[in-house]
Amino acid sequence: MTDKFNIVFMGTPDFAVPALRALVKEHEVSAVFCQPDKPSNRGKKLTASAVKKAALELELTVFQPSSLKESENIELLKSLSPDFIVVAAYGKILTKEVLDIPKFGCVNIHASLLPLWRGAAPIARSIQNGDSESGVCIMQMEQGLDTGGVYARQNVHISDTTTAGELTEQLAAVGAELLLATLPKIANGLKPIPQEGESTYADKIVKTETQIDLELSPQELVRFVHAMSPSPGAWLELSGNRIKVFKARVASEQDPKKFVLPCRGGFVEFLEIAPAGKNRMSGESYVRGNPSIAE
């Protein structure tokens, strides 16, 4: 049989874009499904997702249903006769009716080493938890949330300086490559391996949890900053000014030339920050303009 497949792709954020671009080079992507455009923070203007922008650039057909449960969307998917539905951070639950449509099933690219960090925010939660590694799983989709068997997985190291944005980019590239290698094997009879071991759940990040807590230990605080970076961004208020922090490290002591603050059991240095309404800058640059911060 040929290894060129008819694929319906479902994804929304930046994480999904490398997989879409990789699929277009090797297979026939008959349609792309992504979340409806959403208002941006500034001006509330409707903004297309990263996947929609990429799909339009690639001249692909895009659908943005608010739900896949309506009969017309079920019939649309059936009419496309996909060999696979490939999902990467789509943001919607697929019903059994949708899962049963593709010839070889629905395949998900999940950014964790399942059964660890099932759910919405696996990358951020793995960094926040202090995990030394993350990874990507190519998994069979079923009705449970990220509970399906795993076809393939690849581990990726997390360092003390890794941010969620950096890990997302790395895992997206690894996931795209692993997906291309795995699809032909599935079509030729590869069976998924059931998940084993204790599972953990990665709750969606909400804005109310993004404020920096100086009662955290230095290590916990650094992990928190990196887990929230670059978006939604960890922040704190100093002298009535809100400051977002994107990179940090444990400090041994306070230093008048650096942006170092005391926290529980030690000190933390903010390396890369953005005061409200201003561009990113180094912590040292901010202290030069606001010397009282380091006192």
What's the total helix number? 8
| Number of strand segments | 16
What would you report as the Rg, rounded to the nearest angstrom? Answer: 21 Å
Q: Do you know the CATH architecture of the largest domain?
A: 3-Layer(aba) Sandwich
List the helices and strands and how they pair.
Elements: E1 6-11, H1 17-26, E2 28-33, E3 38-39, E4 46-47, H2 50-57, E5 62-63, H3 71-80, E6 84-88, H4 96-99, E7 106-110, E8 118-119, H5 122-128, E9 133-140, E10 150-157, H6 164-187, E11 201-202, H7 218-227, E12 234-238, E13 241-251, E14 260-263, E15 266-275, E16 281-282, H8 283-289
Parallel strand pairs: 1-2, 1-6, 2-5, 6-7, 8-11
Antiparallel strand pairs: 3-4, 7-9, 9-10, 12-13, 13-15, 14-15, 15-16
Description:
- The chain has 295 residues and is of the alpha/beta class.
- It folds into two domains: 6-201, Formyl transferase, N-terminal domain (Rossmann fold, 3-Layer(aba) Sandwich), CATH 3.40.50; 207-294, Methionyl-tRNA Fmet Formyltransferase, Chain A, domain 2, CATH 3.10.25.
- Helices cover 27% and strands 27% of the residues.
- It contains eight helices and 16 strands.
- Strands 5-2-1-6-7-9-10 form a seven-stranded mixed β-sheet. Strands 12, 13, 14, 15 and 16 form a five-stranded antiparallel β-sheet that branches. The protein has a two-stranded antiparallel ribbon with strand order 3-4.
- The longest helix has 24 residues, at 164-187.
- The radius of gyration is 21 Å and the shape is elongated.
- The termini are far apart.
- The mean pLDDT is 95.
